[in-house]
Design brief:
alpha/beta; Rossmann fold; 2 domains; six-stranded parallel β-sheet; 17 helices; 42% helix; globular; binds uridine-5'-diphosphate-xylopyranose
């Protein structure tokens, strides 16, 4: 099939490359010419394990092409995926849909034969209706079908999540489009993915409800972890004990810093805003957002307590600053709250991240990047394990720094407390 992905960000690029790997002809379109030129030269704008190899392989096979010409790319394709960003509006908390609607306007001028137009971007319920209205201004209704097909990719695991999805959700009442899309996804369905066909509005809401629920699960265990710290309980016992109940499930019950990234913070706010528009109070999700926003303060207060409130001139190391492992994404990472707060109180911060220097900390003069774990630990008073990279999972703290001792605050519960403590280190973790 001939596919066109509009937007070569996370969702568009990963889905486009994976669809081409399944044997489709895919053109990835972006109005950023520079990005398109880079992609043609095999340079990948995002860090995602395995993506580069797949881009190069399918580009060489000529199943994958890149273009900044939306019109001709759309004309030559049967299925168009809208994969542009839907960030939080600068003012307020609803999703900014300007990019989606701009694409819809451009699309309305390029429909030469029947096209299936799909929103893969995360869009609030009723956005498909709006897109349909825009397209109808210039085209008759039998020339297009607007479908919602939300994407559930996790950064760092995106190719695996595309190839082995738990479910494929197709939101449309149009039988013809459903048949074509079921056929497009048949290689994944035959490997076990569940395919469900719902109304377009339901598909739009499934995406937000899923992300909001996962965010709730994380926030729930983070709050339980606070109680565990006060009562001498290991939160991991709670996660295991709860998770074995099949109705609950064990995943997304890892306590840690505030959840971050490009989806959960923005999508929880956007679903609340959509519900408000429809006079519906999503009080649970509102509490989740509030609790998560306060999470960094709770962890920071623990840091202050660990250092007896003497932060000035303390040398603090951050191992990992991204919002999670296997990504270079800094969006809504809790390090963006913690590092400036500690720097403001006069601490000297060194950070090491496997994905390198981060411009986000440039303006803080007592915050510096170092290019190895060993250098980051030099003369440190407190080491904060902020992100769960594999690189940090078997550090020989005892020998790495000539036996010098420092305090360790493991915000991801990577290490066994007894093991680290037996090596003579003061060790703190989350909810245990
Ligand atoms: C998420 C959804 O999982 C994905 O389906 C959706 O399409 C996009 O948003 P992503 O943001 O890439 O994916 O990361 P995810 O692995 O879900 O983690 C999000 C945040 O939750 C991270 O900050 C992570 O550290 C945190 N998290 C996750 C926890 O604190 N505990 C957990 O048990 C799981």
């Amino acid at each position: 099939m001939k596919l066109c992905m509009i937007g070569t960000g996370y969702v568009g690029l990963v889905s486009g490359v994976c669809f081409s790997d399944l044997g489709n002809d895919v053109v990835c379109v972006d109005k950023d010419k520079n990005k398109i030129d880079q992609l043609k030269n095999g340079k990948i704008p995002i860090y995602e394990p395995g993506l580069s190899e797949l881009v190069i392989k399918n580009y060489k096979n000529k199943r994958l092409t890149f273009s900044s010409d939306l019109k001709s790319s759309v004309k030559n394709s049967d299925i168009i995926f809208i994969c542009v960003g839907t960030p939080t509006k600068k003012k307020g908390s609803s999703a900014d849909l300007s990019q989606v609607f701009n694409v819809a306007k451009e699309l309305s001028l390029s429909i030469n034969k029947f096209k299936i137009i799909i929103t893969k971007s995360t869009v609030p319920v009723t956005t498909g209706d709006e897109i349909e209205k825009i397209l109808s201004k210039k085209n008759s209704k039998n020339k297009f079908s607007v479908v919602s097909n939300p994407e559930f990719l996790r950064e760092g695991e995106a190719i695996r999540d595309f190839t082995f999805p738990d479910r494929i959700v197709i939101g449309t009442n149009d039988k013809k489009s459903n048949k074509i899309l079921k056929n497009l996804y048949s290689p994944l369905i035959s490997k076990g993915a569940q395919y469900i066909n719902t109304s377009r509005r339901a598909a739009e809401l499934i995406k937000y409800a899923s992300n909001a629920f996962l965010a709730t699960k994380i926030t729930f265990i983070n709050e339980v972890a606070n109680l565990c710290e006060k009562t001498g309980i290991n939160v991991e016992d709670i996660s295991i004990g709860m998770g074995l109940d099949k109705r609950i499930g064990s995943r997304f019950l890892r306590a840690g810093p505030a959840y971050g990234g490009s989806c959960f913070p923005k999508d929880t706010k956007a679903i609340i805003s959509t519900a408000d528009k429809f006079n519906t109070n999503l009080s649970v999700i509102k509490s989740v957002v509030k609790s998560n926003e306060n999470r960094s303060n709770i962890l920071l207060n623990r840091v202050y307590k660990i250092l007896n409130n003497k932060i000035k001139n303390k040398k603090i190391t951050f191992l990992g600053v991204t919002f999670k492992a296997n990504t270079d994404d800094m969006r809504d990472s809790s390090s963006l709250t913690m590092i400036p707060a500690l720097s403001k109180k006069g601490a000297y911060i060194k950070y090491f991240d496997p994905t390198g220097y981060k411009k986000e900390f440039k303006k803080f003069k007592n915050v510096s990047y170092v290019n190895s774990i060993k250098k980051s630990l030099d003369n440190s008073d407190l080491v904060i394990i902020h992100t769960e990279w594999n690189d940090f999972k078997s550090i020989n703290f005892k020998n790495i720094n000539k036996g010098k001792k420092f305090i360790i605050y493991d915000m991801r519960n990577i290490y066994l407390p007894s093991k680290i403590k037996s090596q003579g280190f003061k060790y703190y973790s989350v909810g245990r």
